[in-house]
Design a protein that fits this description.
By secondary structure, the chain is an alpha+beta fold. It has 7 helices and 8 strands.
Length: 253
């Protein structure tokens, strides 16, 4: 029974840390290295960029003077004009009533976490279970972590451009896409006055696709069958199965 497949977490084994410039594994500011299972690594930043654009809702965790704070906000990836080789700039907006933006004057460190597919993998999915019984549950997931310094942007033109970019990105492909200019200007001014921009200049990226790449072909096929059998409209099992079939973000996105 897989109805509860979206809840809980059996394993989080790290993620690939990519320097925005060199794309190599690096150490954090504290000098601690991040354990990286080789088979879950991504070779470049393009799949990470594609994932951010396809799944723009981020959990942003910020280190403030009062401790850790967090918010959930869709972010648009824009080029870093100061250094095009970098991952880019992540831009969004929050309610002006949200006190968090007032904590960004010193541009504190933050991480934006983007989540694609995820799902529970039962030992019963593996054909090898009947042969060896040396299997345990795990959790597959696809994620990108973007680190950098976060700032608030209280600029009318900047915020309008950000709102338009996010709207155009999300409306693309619709038969009759809505545009910001469709709304009355006076109404837009009132709505925009209630928000303020935020921008994360990305300096480091962790990208990981954990999709059973460490299993045999037979067991991977078993994972796909198992996920499809327990797929419901409420869980992401079918979506996760497509990542297992692809085997990597490059092939899936």
């Amino acid at each position: 029974m897989c109805a509860g497949a979206l809840f809980g977490l059996f394993a989080m084994w790290g993620a690939r840390r990519l320097s925005s410039k060199s794309l190599k594994t690096t150490t954090s500011s504290s000098g601690q290295r991040l354990y990286i299972p080789r088979k879950f690594r991504q070779p470049d930043l393009q799949p990470a960029r594609a994932l951010v654009r396809k799944f723009p809702l981020a959990t942003v965790v910020v280190s403030t003077a009062h401790g850790l704070d967090a918010l959930h906000v869709p972010l648009v990836l824009a080029p870093d004009l100061q250094d095009p080789e970098r991952f880019g700039m992540l831009r969004g907006h929050v309610a002006r009533a949200n006190p968090l933006w007032r904590s960004l004057e010193q541009q504190p460190e933050a991480v934006a976490i983007f989540q694609a597919a995820q799902g529970y993998v039962s030992p019963g999915f593996y054909p090898s279970k009947k042969e060896t019984h040396t299997v345990v549950p795990t959790w597959n997931y696809v994620t990108v972590h973007a680190h950098g310094r976060l700032r608030a942007v209280d600029n009318k033109e900047w915020v309008r451009a950000q709102v338009e970019a996010l709207t155009d990105q999300q409306e693309a492909g619709r038969a009759e896409p809505w545009r910001v200019s469709d709304a009355p200007e006076g109404y837009l001014d009132r709505m925009q006055a209630a928000i303020i921009g935020i921008e994360l200049r990305v300096s480091l990226v962790h990208a990981k696709t954990k999709a059973s790449q460490d299993k045999s072909k037979k067991d991977r096929e078993g994972v796909v069958r198992g996920l499809m059998e327990c797929a419901t409209p409420e869980n992401q099992a079918e979506h996760m199965a497509s990542w297992v079939v692809a085997g990597s973000a490059e092939e899936h996105l």
